[in-house]
Amino acid sequence: MMNICVIGTGYVGLVVGACFADMGNEVRCVDVDADKIAKLRKGKIPIFEPELEDVVKRNVLEKRLTFTTDLASAVKKSLICFIAVGTPPGEDGSADLKHVLDAAKGIAAAMNDYKIIVNKSTVPVGTADKVRAAMRKVTTHPFDVVSNPEFLKEGAAVADFMRPSRIIIGTNSPKAEHALKELYSPFNRTGKPILVMSNASAEIAKYAANAMLATRISFMNEIANLAEAVGADIEEVRNALASDPRIGNKFLFAGVGYGGSCFPKDVKAIIHTAHQHHRPLLVMEAVQAANERQKKVLQEKMQTHFNHQLKGKRIAIWGLAFKPNTDDIREAPSLTLIEFLLRHHASVSVFDPAAMEETKKIFTNKLKYCKNSYEALAEADALVILTEWNEFRYPDFTKLSTLMRHPVIFDGRNIYSEEMLKGYRIDAYYSIERTTRL
Ligand code: NAD
């Protein structure tokens, strides 16, 4: 059993804290957001994440998991202090380290003994040195700074953290390495590697992983655009690519562009780091540009379909979260599309199984928020699919076509096909990139 604290109780920090507690450790989750901590203390989970509620409740009950805004007392009782605060993009695209450095200084000010500071936030190369320097100014106590990037995926965060594909420990301190290997040993029973490396390698490995995944998405989106132009079907092309073991079958789906709290900001940040070091990443710059263009593909299809007369049209949107099984809408393609529709004076009805509250915070009363997917279809001139939640995959198309004023579907996630829609009264079906008029 170890005493640890996790600073930042968001999508990453809460999962990390709850999962470490589940392995028998005593975990204190710290946040500056007093409302969030108050909610958690009352047993309310502030985010939607499968399995999380059970793990949190179980460990709160066993008194292994507690929540506090008191950083100093949490640090004093912990050997290992994780930093899992946000690293949003600054104006120039670089990762803003303000929260990380605030947390580091807070830890340093509270130190009473040797501590291991583990940076779990996604941070640019050189951050461990900056954390060390900031802490040195405040404390004379000994400490080590470890870079331990997190690879969990929202929507499957608990499962990913419990069964990681790899664990990266960036440190040159044998003491810190030993402690972290022990802490992580229960998560490593399946023999997946624990990779020990320098701080710098660990920091850049996280960005490189997200950059590679974003590249696959933009690559497939561009191939899809080409497929449409030459009369090929991107699903058939995808199957052909997926059967090559060198390529693999993951992350090959064309869509409305990548979003979320990680890919856009991490691509921006690695491009920024590369410029700072005079090694521009030309591929990543193209990946970013291709993604911006991709977000407009559905807009263009809608403009063409409605003959540039979106004013007064009612558009139903199914799916607001940037991907299924999360309520996270940060940089979601839905935001760009809704803004576009409102700019063109369309009225918008929306439904998402988890992200309604988050969306209300942004668009307030500008949208019609519906209780279920069918309510959103009432009198709609088109339905747009933006998140591939399972419950949207096999709707009652007869009901759908009856409820809508004009049964037209813009499928931003390619979850339907011409085959599936045959026999139903659907006026037009658009996808990425398999435009079909039925
Ligand atoms: P988040 O915004 O959900 O949570 C961050 C939390 O930190 C917030 O609750 C905020 O109030 C708190 N915070 C900010 N400053 C603080 C301080 N000084 N002391 C205490 N708490 C403070 O962010 P997130 O999605 O959990 O991401 C955290 C980090 O993990 C980011 O660097 C992100 O890139 C990285 N990451 C995220 C994911 C993901 O899927 N969300 C996956 C891997 C890595």
Description of the molecule:
The chain has helices at residues 11-22, 34-41, 52-61, 71-76, 98-110, 127-136, 157-162, 174-184, 199-230, 234-242, 263-276, 282-294, 297-305, 333-343, 356-363, 397-403, 418-421, and strands at 3-7, 26-30, 65-68, 80-83, 115-119, 143-147, 167-170, 194-197, 314-318, 347-351, 368-369, 382-385, 408-411, 428-431. Helix 9 (199-230) packs across helix 12 (282-294). Helix 1 (11-22) links the parallel strand 1 (3-7) and strand 2. The termini are far apart. The longest helix is centred in the middle third of the chain and has 32 residues, at 199-230. It contains 17 helices and 14 strands. 46% of the residues are buried. Strands 3-2-1-4-5-6 form a six-stranded parallel beta sheet, with helices on both faces. The chain has three domains: 3-165, 3-Layer(aba) Sandwich (Rossmann fold); 206-294, N-(1-d-carboxylethyl)-l-norvaline Dehydrogenase, domain 2; 297-437, NAD(P)-binding Rossmann-like Domain (Rossmann fold, 3-Layer(aba) Sandwich), CATH 3.40.50.720. It is an alpha/beta fold and 438 residues long. It is globular. Bound molecules: nicotinamide-adenine-dinucleotide. Nicotinamide-adenine-dinucleotide binds at residues 7-13, 30-33, 36, 84-87, 99, 102-103, 121-122, 150, 152, 154, 261-262.
